[in-house]
Amino acid sequence: MTVEKNLKKAIRGDEKAFEELIKTEKNKLFRMAYLYVKNEDNP
């Protein structure tokens, strides 16, 4: 399933689609979060 389809389903409350979205995009999400906190160990 594409990111776009998972995103639309996740917005509508589909937890499975949300989990899949996180799995496929986790590296991008981590990099974005790191830009904000500047510390890998910061919870």
List keywords for this structure.
2 helices; mainly alpha; 43 residues; elongated; 74% helix; single chain
SSE topology:
Elements: H1 3-11, H2 15-37
Helix pairs in contact: 1-2
Report on this model:
The protein is mainly alpha-helical. Helix content is 74%, strand content 0%. Helix 1 packs across helix 2. It is elongated and about 30 Å long.
Cα-atom radius of gyration:
12 Å
Q: Work out the strand percent.
A: under 5%
Helix content: over 70%
Q: If helices are DSSP runs of H or I spanning 4 or more residues, what is the number of helices? A: 2
The stretches of 5 or more residues where confidence is low (pLDDT under 50) are none
Distance between the termini: 31 Å
Shape: elongated
Averaged pLDDT? 89
Summary of the model, kept short:
This protein is mainly α. It is built from two helices and no strands. It starts with a helix and ends in a 6-residue tail after the last helix.
